[in-house]
Amino acid sequence: MAWTVQIGGKVDSTELRRPEYLQAQLREDEQPEIRIHRRLVLEPIGIPLQTFGSIQELLSILIDIVDVHESLVNQCDILHRDLSIQNTMCYNFDYESSTWPTLSENTDICTCLAERGEVLKKCKYHQGFLIDFNYAKFMDETPTISEGERMGTIPFMALDILHVFGSETGANVTHPPKHDLESIIYILLWICVLYSGPNSNPLAAHTMCLKPWAECKSLPQVEALWSTKTGELMTHVPLQHFSSYFGGLRPFTQRLYAAILNNHQGAITLTHDSLREILLDAFFQVEELSAVPAKHKGELLASTVKQAYC
């Protein structure tokens, strides 16, 4: 994989960095040799999100994804626009020589993040990051979605994006950061329904309640999926199909559903801090216990809720 490096929206090249020098070395009839800055990925640098080793590590990786997304938006003016389980990865972080920045300005969240940092150093959890910026845009371009335009991976699309993608009304909708954050919630739901625990193979989505999510192949099906997922904001159907291992996450995913519902109704309640806060609450409150029989095959770990730390 290769990509061209940009600086301030312009291709990074010798022409950009040293225009006077290039011209000074040439005769009048010569054209300068312009070299473009490109980067190559020659070997894997991460592993799939699904390789998490515990509920706490999974939540920690998702918190990292929120941090990465916020950094892209606020520091780089870049909106990813395609958060999915395929595009969220993790890697071995060097806790001895590196530090992980705290982006939130909320004092309580910063305190929890500091406490989480101590857990990470002890447990050596993987860190999360994003890949695949094919749909990404600079924020100053005011990203919009038009009727029938695909933007993202269908099972993880925000409701507003799904509606426009499958719509025949000709309406447009902007794609603000909250839509990417909504996708992170769907990633968590996907894992909780289809995976029985760490190092497990996923169940076939078409055999589970997520069948409408996974089998969209036409615009009418996309519109039907929008209707299904809108109804799930009230019924919380996916929560009823969580594997036993993820049972302790139900109260927190109910809060996440409430945030999506408020967003869908026009309130801006799904922010980096609000999503980070719920994930942090789950990070400190969900405890893994001894193995018990579960709905899925095999012996699985159950989860319960203990006293909150933040």
Automatic annotation (TrEMBL):
Protein name in UniProt: Fungal-type protein kinase domain-containing protein
Organism (species): Boletus reticuloceps
Top-rank taxon, per record: Eukaryota
Domain Fungal-type protein kinase: residue ranges: 25-192
InterPro entries linked to this entry: Kinase-like_dom_sf, Pkinase_fungal
